[in-house]
Amino acid sequence: MLNKLLILILVFLAFALVCCSPTTEELYTKAYKLEEEKKYKEAIEVYDRIIKKTGKLQDAWFNKGWCYLQDSNYTKALHFFEIVLKMKGVNSGNSVIIEMNPDLPFASEADRHQISLNEVYYQMAIAKYNLDSLAASYRLFKHCSKQNYNTGNCYVWQGLIWTRYDSMDRACGFFQQAKMIGEGEADRFIDEFCKETK
Predict the structure, then answer these.
(1) Range of the domain at 143
(2) Nearest CA among 153, 82, 72 for reference residue 117
(3) How many distinct structural domains can be found in the chain?
(4) What letter would DSSP give residue 198?
C-alpha cells in the first residue's frame, strides 16, 4: 500500500512539474519584456532556457546574440549569430538557402522562429564594426544594402566606416545616399562630417 501511495505521489509531482513549467511562448514573452527593460543578462538566461528546451529555434540563438550585442559583448554576439548561420546552412557547402514562410499553415515551430539571413548579417556587421573589423563589417553592410535590407542604415554604417579611414568624400557619398532614401540619421552625420562637401 505504501509503495502504491509513493508511486501516486511521484506521478502527481511529475505531472504538476510539467504543467507548471512555462511554455516556450511564455518564455519568449518574458525575454522580450526583459529586453525592453534593458535587462540583457536576465534575458540571456531566459533564452538559455528556451535553447535547453529545444535548440532548433533560430530566434532564440539570434536573440541571445542580440542581447550580447546590446551588452557590448561583441565576440559572444558573433558566436551566437554564427550558430544561426550554421542552422541556416551557410558555410556548409549549400549554394541555396531556403527560408520558409512562417505563416504557412504547415509551418513547423522551427519555421515560425527563423530569422532572416539579412538580419543576421546586419547584426553581425554591427558587431564586427564595434570590434574594429571594418573590412568585414563593410562587406556585410554592402551585402545587406544590395539585398535592399535596411538600406538607409547600411549606407550610414558604410559612411561611418569610411570616416574611420579618413575618406570623407566616400563617407559623405554614403550619407547623401542614405538621406536620398529618407534615412533620418543621415542629416546628423552630414552635419558632423560633410560641412565642406555640402
Answers:
(1) 134-198
(2) 82
(3) 2
(4) -
